[in-house]
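Researcher: Please translate sequence to structure tokens.
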Amino acid sequence: MDFQFMGGSMGSVVGEKITRLIEYATKEFLPLIIVCASGGARMQEGSLNLMQMAKISSALYDYQSNKKLFSVPILTSPTTGGVTASFGMLGDIIIAEPNAYIALAGKRVIEQTLNKTVPDGSQAAEYLFQKGLFNLIVPRNPLKSVLSELFQLHTFFPLNQN
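Model: Translation complete:
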């Protein structure tokens, strides 16, 4: 997802590409890494866009539950909206970057909707990690070695053993 284009919003084409990626990984029995940098679902596309979240989640369900394969979403800043509500939180191990902004809705939207103040830092990766929203906070430099270790661990203790 390219955040420079419409805030990295997930439209129907992006949803289709991610679904095809998951289906390919399922067919070829490959591990899956999805790097998320999105302002959420592209509301300009209406219900077609909202269906992408369900479609991606369904493909991930087959990938994880039926085939028992290994997926890792990496949450960068920002990861919000429909991406957070769907595949951003559906990995076996969920990784966030330090200081990443991760939310279902933005601070302004929450405050205007609920007429309550959202505390500063409550949508930052470190705060959400303390609340148990994801598994690791990893800077970009050591990310490759951390992923390598996770995949080695997965091959040692595969998810598809009975």
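Researcher: Any highlights?
Model: Helices lie at 12-28, 47-66, 81-85, 107-114, 125-130, 143-156.
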